[in-house]
Amino acid sequence: MISILGAGAFGTALAVALAAKGPVTLWGRRIDWQGENPRLPGVALPDAITVTDDLNAALKAGTILLALPAQKLGAFLDDHAARLDGKCQVSTAKGIDLQRLTGPSTLIARACPRATVAVLTGPSFAADIARGLPTALTLACAEASAAEALQQRLSAPVLRLYRTTDVQGAELGGALKNVVAIAAGTVIGAGLGDSARAAIITRGFAEMTRLAAHLGARPETLTGLSGLGDLTLTCTSDQSRNFRFGAALGAGRPFDTATTVEGAATARALVRLAARDGLDLPIAAMVARLAEGEVSVEKAMDHLLRRPLKEE
Ligand SMILES: NC(=O)C1=CN([C@@H]2O[C@H](COP(=O)(O)OP(=O)(O)OC[C@H]3O[C@@H](n4cnc5c(N)ncnc54)[C@H](OP(=O)(O)O)[C@@H]3O)[C@@H](O)[C@H]2O)C=CC1
Ligand SMILES: O=C(CO)COP(=O)(O)O
């Protein structure tokens, strides 16, 4: 049995895809809807999905997908560690915890030392998955045999999973691309053009790869679905909330603060990491300041352009 914890857009979309293979439990802390989840409008839920707010019922499954936002995951794991430990836990969160400065896999491993820890990430909008459009993702688990078993269990007719044992690389790809997507959105929202966006994507990718290698990831993982793949998607599509948030910043428009925008807190986490480890992460630093309203778009761009000239 599979349970998905977190009945947001992504948890619900994964439930729809996996329901093609068998029963799925979708848990939310507050289920105040019936039939159609307002976070994923226009999607009818198949009968194979049981929607519940009963965590004990959901935790009867051996495989647990954690589809919570990155900044909520740590406290959730702390609250429920005793019941979650020993299970196979697959996180879908794309972010770095601002307080603990780690990604989801380390949050799980610290809270639940006996758990099998995995990450499911890659270019995939919830709405695309839920509509049955083809999607390719990365399943990362340090234990090769568990990675293979999960790849089989979580692949579905239109959900094609590749596997890797580089958990750090896979989860950093997903977390860091959100920061670059905000920067790309800002460029477009401010009317700076497609050429400037290409520059931000490329230099953002260089920043992602540098940081990931520093944190022990394999650089080639970043060229896969979870890095380059998701970066490409998120920096070029209005479907992305991170991109839309950046576009609103760039255009000086307000943005709904209830929307999940993982890149904003992650950019702040990266600024702290950079200070801790003596790293140069100019794009993350710019996004953090822009998102906090500490600098204007003009000043931020000017600052990036005036950095010392260097080799590529
Ligand atoms: N949407 C997408 O296309 C994709 C999203 N992801 C990633 O998946 C993660 C979740 O995103 P997404 O589903 O889109 O976000 P949503 O904003 O759609 O939903 C977030 C969900 O998390 C729940 N939640 C928040 N805090 C808690 C908590 N403390 N305990 C229990 N539930 C909680 C919310 O419940 P409530 O309604 O009660 O607040 C809500 O159901 C993010 O890291 C995102 O980057 C990955 C790939 C694609
Ligand atoms: O991660 C995603 C697609 O792979 C979703 O991106 P947003 O959170 O920016 O909407």
From TrEMBL:
**One Pfam family it belongs to:** NAD_Gly3P_dh_N
Occurrences of domain Glycerol-3-phosphate dehydrogenase NAD-dependent N-terminal (ranges): 2-146
Q: Do the record's keywords include Transmembrane?
A: no
**Reactions listed under catalytic activity:** sn-glycerol 3-phosphate + NAD(+) = dihydroxyacetone phosphate + NADH + H(+); sn-glycerol 3-phosphate + NADP(+) = dihydroxyacetone phosphate + NADPH + H(+)
**Could you tell me one molecular function GO term of this UniProt entry?**
glycerol-3-phosphate dehydrogenase [NAD(P)+] activity
Keywords, comma-separated and alphabetical = Cytoplasm, Lipid biosynthesis, Lipid metabolism, NAD, NADP, Nucleotide-binding, Oxidoreductase, Phospholipid biosynthesis, Phospholipid metabolism
The active site is formed by: 177
> Coiled-coil segments, which residues?
none
Which residues belong to any copy of the Glycerol-3-phosphate dehydrogenase NAD-dependent C-terminal domain?
A: 166-301
Q: Kindly list the positions annotated as binding sn-glycerol 3-phosphate.
A: 94, 122, 124, 177, 230, 240-242
Pathways involved: Membrane lipid metabolism; glycerophospholipid metabolism
Which compartments does it reside in?
Cytoplasm
Indicate which residues the UniProt annotation says bind NADPH.
10, 29-30, 94, 126, 241, 261-262
Chief site of localization: cytoplasm
Entry EC no(s): 1.1.1.94
Which PANTHER family does UniProt cross-reference here? GLYCEROL-3-PHOSPHATE DEHYDROGENASE, GLYCEROL-3-PHOSPHATE DEHYDROGENASE [NAD(+)] 2, CHLOROPLASTIC
What family is this protein classified in? Belongs to the NAD-dependent glycerol-3-phosphate dehydrogenase family.
HAMAP family linked: NAD_Glyc3P_dehydrog (MF_00394)
What's this chain's function? Catalyzes the reduction of the glycolytic intermediate dihydroxyacetone phosphate (DHAP) to sn-glycerol 3-phosphate (G3P), the key precursor for phospholipid synthesis.
Q: What is this protein called?
A: Glycerol-3-phosphate dehydrogenase [NAD(P)+]
What is the originating organism of this protein? Paracoccus rhizosphaerae
Q: State the taxonomy lineage.
A: Bacteria, Pseudomonadati, Pseudomonadota, Alphaproteobacteria, Rhodobacterales
Q: Which gene encodes it?
A: gpsA
